[in-house]
Write a structure and sequence with these properties.
Blueprint (H helix, E strand, L loop, with lengths): L4 H15 L12 H10 L5 H14 L3 H5 L3 H8 L6 H16 L8 H4 L7 H12 L8 H10 L9 H13 L6 H15 L17 H4 L17 E8 L1 E2 L2 E6 L10 E2 L2 E2 L8 E8 L4 E8 L9 E4 L11 H12 L6
Parallel strand pairs: 1-7
Antiparallel strand pairs: 1-5, 2-3, 3-4, 3-8, 6-7
The chain binds a DNA duplex (11 and 11 nucleotides) through helix 2, helix 3, helix 6, helix 8 and helix 9.
Length: 336
DNA sequence: GATTCGTGGAG
DNA sequence: TCTCCAAGAAT
């Protein structure tokens, strides 16, 4: 290895101590529970987005026992708007599992953590390192980018084989001590210095060791590949408003927005009912063009319920549905 | 291995 | 507005 692991570790640790982030909410009075919650929330989600959710979550479910004892509706309500809702249900499952089967102790080793629902290879290593300060390898988007540039790793690192290769490379550079600080250092370097665009190479402690920097190819790594444009789907929803509130439907577990409360959805368009409004929404894998009908009849096998307006803040609703409803309740259309 | 799963920050 | 992509995991 051209770059000695001992040197790399020393650089990352020293840089983290001096320039890394130390004021994130989940870094204060660290407990395994805080680390678990934060790591699940941070999956594919930016730190800035997570912080207010994390604060509210800890206020509502201060420890793993309170989460285990919570009702699913409360859990989904607290997660609403954060996306990837299976994370919330898995976290709830995990809390029950840990409280009832593991005497409240969150597992410590990556292997044991992998048995936990919603915990994959990254999160297992992260919890081990951050919660217990024990050796845990982490490969996320930050680490992938940093190593891709440091060693000019070519090709698509997202394939199974290349990802395993990258994982083993990072593993060889992961120390057996100072695990928490090292893991934080990797993430902080990726998030604040080795950024996707306009990286701050002048401030990077690894500048002289970085192959991409030396070849002036930093912006070419990690190599990007074209993705096909997102398909567009249509959605048809019903908003039935009365003085008593609005009717919502709890969505089935096998749809987008599983088990959230949303406007009842029609399988087809309704050419009879008046159109109240439309909205567009972009998911990770398709675009939604939605039509909302006013007072359309619908039949459903799902649970439906009428909610008063002031109840809506306490239930888990998809972000775009909530936005649409708020717009039309605050500024009701008078075009009928 | 390819798909599915949300939402919003930032350029 | 459009694009990339974010402390990924499950199926």
């Amino acid at each position: 290895m051209m770059l000695k692991p001992e040197y790399f570790q020393e650089v990352v640790l020293n840089w983290q101590a001096q320039y890394g982030r130390h004021d994130l909410p989940w870094q204060q009075h660290i407990t395994p529970y805080k680390v678990l919650v934060s790591e699940i929330m941070l999956q594919q989600t930016q730190v800035k987005t997570v912080i207010p959710y994390f604060q509210r979550w800890l206020a509502r479910f201060p420890d793993i026992a309170s989460l285990a004892a919570a009702a699913e509706d409360d859990v989904m309500s607290c997660w609403q708007g954060l996306g990837y809702y299976s994370r919330a249900r898995n976290l709830h499952k995990t809390a029950k599992y840990v409280v009832h089967e593991l005497a409240g102790e969150i597992p410590k080793t990556p292997a044991e953590l992998r048995e936990v629902p919603g915990v994959g290879p990254y999160t297992a290593g992260a919890i081990t390192a951050f919660a217990y300060n024990e050796p845990g390898t982490i490969v996320d988007g930050n680490v992938k980018r940093l190593f891709a540039r440091l060693f000019e790793l070519e090709g698509n690192l997202n394939t199974g084989a290349r990802h395993r290769e990258l994982w083993e490379l990072v593993e060889r550079y992961t120390p057996t001590t100072n695990n928490r600080q090292f893991a934080q250092g990797l993430l902080d370097l990726g998030a604040t210095i080795c950024t996707p665009r306009q990286p701050r190479c002048q401030e990077c402690p690894l500048q002289l060791k970085c192959k991409a920097f030396s070849h002036n190819t930093v912006n070419e790594f990690p190599q990007r590949f074209k993705k096909s444009p997102l398909p567009t789907r249509s959605g048809y929803f019903v908003l039935n408003k009365s003085d008593a509130g609005i009717v919502l439907e709890q969505r089935p577990a096998d749809t987008i927005w599983p088990r959230l409360w949303a406007l009842p959805e029609l399988v087809d368009e309704d050419t009879e009912a008046p159109v109240l409004g439309r909205f567009k929404h972009t998911f990770s894998h398709y675009k939604l063009d939605a039509v909302v009908y006013q007072g359309a009849e619908f039949k459903t096998n799902n649970l439906t319920k009428r909610f008063a307006i002031d109840q809506l803040q306490d239930i888990g609703m998809p972000a775009p549905i909530r936005k649409f409803i708020e717009q039309h309740l605050l500024k009701p259309a008078d075009n009928n």
